[in-house]
Each structure stands twice: as structure tokens, then as C-alpha cells.
Design a protein that fits this description.
The chain has 225 residues and is of the alpha/beta class. It has helices spanning 20-30, 37-50, 53-60, 62-75, 82-92, 105-114, 127-136, 149-152, 159-169, 183-193, 219-224, and strands spanning 5-8, 15-16, 100-101, 118-122, 145-147, 176-180, 196-200, 212-213. Helix 3 (53-60) packs across helix 4 (62-75), helix 4 (62-75) packs across helix 5 and helix 9 (159-169) crosses helix 10 (183-193).
Length: 225
């Protein structure tokens, strides 16, 4: 069946950022709070065991990340101005994140558009975040649809978030490819929804039995075939 749409994950598929602990460290240091990367990493990993990020964002929206940051700060033993700092971390996150588009992104989008293929993004992020990211990186106009967890109150790996995006494009799952970096959230989720799933493996390190591409431009081969 002819491929009519290619959907992408956002983080670590289309864009990359500084490591999370480094972003925390940078923002806190602007307010005179000194922490180590290792300390933040430990606190962040403890949060990951306690919170469901997808469900939390769906339920609380932006307030989820304030709650998340408060808990990180608590684990770091930071008591003074904790609520103020939690809000500032959320507010200033993308200013300190070293947002960057992967080198193969624009070329891939240009070729897809030239072939009349629809494009979209399906992310486990919030609308307020992905809009800011796409605007900062001048990617907003490249996509026919962008769907996040609070667009349809679903997140990857739920098949419904993929189907929601395809419904907006009026494309059947069998006519679509999804590209992401996570086997659990992207590959398995897209497969469950009936799309052709591909995993980005730019370093050639994925060992599991999944179909991978080293560069996003390789998706053009799937369009031609």
C-alpha cells in the first residue's frame, strides 16, 4: 500500500537537548543554588520510579512539572524558595536546554513534501512545550499535524494517540510510517496502532529485533517502495 504520511516522535528523533541533570544544574545556578549533575540524576531517577509522566501530564497539565520539580528539589535537600525554584525550572527549561535539530531532519522533510507525503509529530509532551520547541527551532510550518498528550488525553504507547493524528490527516494506519527512538513507546505503540514502525539508530547500537534506520532520510526508500 502506498505511504501517504510519515509521523515522527519529537525528542531524540527530530530534536536533541542537553542532558536533563545539566539543565537543572544550569537553571539552579542562575539563582545561586549549587548542585552536582550526579545529585540531580539520582533525584530524577527516583522521581521516575514514583511518577507516571504520561498520566501525570494528562491529569495535571503544566502543573505536573511543577510537582515534579518540587519533588526533585526536595530530594536534593533544597528548602529555601522551593516553590519559586520549581516554577522557574519549568518556565526557563527550554531556554537552557541547548535545543538542536538533527542534521537529517530538514532534508527528510523537504523530500517528503516534494513527494506529496503528509507529515506529523506524535509526542508525549504537552502542547505548550512542543509549540515552544517547534517555534524556537523554526519547524512549526513543516508539519500537517502535531499531537501531544493533552491534545487527545492519550499518550504513547496507547494506540489512540497515533490514530488521532492519522484521523486528522485522513490517512489509514496501513498508509503511514512512524519513526521514533523508543522501542517501548514509539515502535510498539505505532505497531499496535497498525502503522509501519521504524526506530532511529544513528549510532548503530540497537540490538533488539526491530526495524531500524541510521538516518531519517532512509524513510524515503519506504515511500518509493
Amino acid at each position: 500500500m502506498q505511504i501517504k504520511a510519515v509521523l515522527f516522535d519529537l525528542g531524540w528523533t527530530l530534536i536533541r537537548t542537553a542532558e536533563v541533570p545539566k539543565i537543572y544544574k544550569r537553571i539552579l545556578e542562575t539563582y545561586g543554588v549549587r548542585v552536582s549533575v550526579d545529585e540531580v540524576l539520582k533525584a530524577h531517577r527516583a522521581n521516575e520510579k514514583e511518577f507516571d509522566v504520561v498520566e501525570g501530564q494528562i491529569e495535571f497539565g503544566k502543573d505536573f512539572w511543577i510537582k515534579w520539580n518540587l519533588k526533585v528539589l526536595e530530594r536534593l535537600g533544597i528548602e529555601e524558595n522551593r516553590e519559586f525554584l520549581a516554577k522557574k525550572i519549568d518556565e526557563l527549561w527550554w531556554e537552557h536546554a541547548d535545543l538542536e535539530v538533527y542534521p537529517d531532519v530538514v532534508e527528510t522533510l523537504v523530500q517528503l513534501k516534494a513527494k506529496g507525503v503528509k507529515t506529523g509529530v506524535v509526542t508525549n509532551g504537552l502542547k505548550s512545550d512542543f509549540q515552544q520547541i517547534l517555534r524556537k527551532l523554526k519547524l512549526t510550518d513543516w508539519f500537517d499535524v502535531v499531537v501531544g498528550v493533552n491534545t487527545c488525553d492519550k499518550g504513547k504507547t496507547d494506540r489512540e494517540i497515533f490514530l488521532y493524528a492519522l484521523d486528522k490527516l485522513r490517512v489509514h494506519p496501513k498508509e503511514a510510517v512512524f519513526i521514533g527512538d523508543s522501542i517501548k513507546y514509539d515502535y510498539e505503540g505505532a505497531k499496535r496502532a497498525g502503522l509501519k514502525p521504524l526506530v532511529t539508530d544513528r549510532e548503530g547500537q540497537t540490538s533488539k529485533n526491530v526495524e531500524t534506520i541510521r538516518s531519517l532520510t532512509e524513510v524515503i526508500l519506504y515511500i518509493q517502495n
